[in-house]
Amino acid sequence: MAIPQVMLQMNRFDLRPGEMRLDTSVAFDAQLTFIGKIESPWTLQNGPKNLHAARETGHSGALVIAPAFRPALDGITPGAPLVLLYWMSEAPRDLLRQFPRHRDSATGTFNLRSPARPNPIGMGVVRVTGIDIAAGRVEIDAIDAIDGTPLIDIKPLARRADSLPD
Amino acid sequence: MAIPQVMLQMNRFDLRPGEMRLDTSVAFDAQLTFIGKIESPWTLQNGPKNLHAARETGHSGALVIAPAFRPALDGITPGAPLVLLYWMSEAPRDLLRQFPRHRDSATGTFNLRSPARPNPIGMGVVRVTGIDIAAGRVEIDAIDAIDGTPLIDIKPLARRADSLPD
Predict the structure, then answer these.
(1) How far is CA B16 from CA B20, B72, B105, B110, B120, in A?
(2) Per the CB < 8 Å rule, is B33 touching A8?
């Protein structure tokens, strides 16, 4: 940890039983650039619980890539499985322990998939259903991110490297 | 894309056939805080090609979490499958098309798992083999990141949400 510079965003004021907040300021150590955004049917109010649930709704999504980054889409074809990383900018970053409504008690943030985490990066494994590289548009089968979520990385899924031996 | 502010890091000077560099400056849009670091047997020179290859060497690794973030490990137990996100700070960020040595021709960065990408975030699916929360130490079965790599997130693997229907 470097010398504290900037307080993490704090925007959830009520703590539930057993929850714990980061009580020190924390340095920012590296910077992200947004490569585009996600289009989805979801808002903060109506989003599905996870990507599996989003897929079950039958609603698809899309990636809209900024012009400067479109050449980096070359080689991606319909049917390809992708790993998306995106930035959940609405999430508080200072919760160390959380008590989600679907659990019996509080637990550590790194033991949860909650959007509230020190670095609010979301991950989704999706399938490409269409792509127009010149337009910077990639259609995907489903996504649980809210509409307009900034995208930070696209990776091809590597089935063997991205799974455990069993 | 916001107004350009800071040039991305450029530290690979030789382009191979078909490779393409980002030729504009790009804004930084969000900031990361490092939550700890990865311990591994690997250096920039001797690292394995991917996590599957790292696992096959039989060499394990560890996560060392900074004191402020240790309460967020609560609930993680030996045997748990985790998704790690880490920051590959040595990688160039300006390559849009790349010609890796193991391929026949250049292709888009988002179609490759190369560390060189606009946001050099690495991902690994690992298994916990031991944990000491007070010491901020999590032993893991294997990792392909180089020793000292900054860690940015730990998530529990969600088998159904983190895979495609087939």
Answers:
(1) 9, 44, 9, 17, 20
(2) yes
Burial class (CB in 10 A: 0-12, 13-18, 19+), B82: buried
ipTM here: 0.91
- Alpha helices by DSSP H, listed for B10-113, are 51-57
DSSP code at position B51: H
Contact assignment for B1 to A152 by CB distance below 8 Å: no
Determine if the pTM surpasses 0.90. Answer: yes
Contact at CB, A22 and B68, closer than 8 angstroms = yes
- Please name each of the domains of chain B with its CATH number: 37-93+108-158 (2.40.30.70)
Q: Is there a contact between A147 and A60 (Cβ–Cβ < 8 Å)?
A: no
Which residue do the tokens 């996590």 mark?
B51
**CB nearest B127 (choices: A87, A127, A164):** A164
- Least CA distance to A113: which residue of chain B? B155
Residues of B in contact with A31 (CB under 8 A): 6, 28-32
Q: Which of B152, B150, B147, B151 is nearest to B39 (CA)?
A: B147
Interface probe with A: pick from B119, B126, B151, B154, most Cβ of A within 10 Å:
B119
Looking at the complex, does the CB of residue B29 fall below 8 Å from at least one CB of chain A? yes
Q: CA A113, CA B154: separation in Å to the nearest integer?
A: 9
Pairwise CB contact (< 8 Å): B32 & A28: yes
* Each residue's pLDDT expressed in tens, for chain B with a length of 166 residues: 333 333 344 455 688 889 998 976 788 999 999 999 999 999 988 999 999 999 999 999 999 999 999 999 999 999 999 999 999 988 999 999 999 988 999 999 999 999 999 999 999 999 999 999 999 999 999 999 999 999 999 999 998 888 888 7
Tell me the one-letter amino acid at A85.
L
B132, B62 Cβ separation under 8 angstroms: no
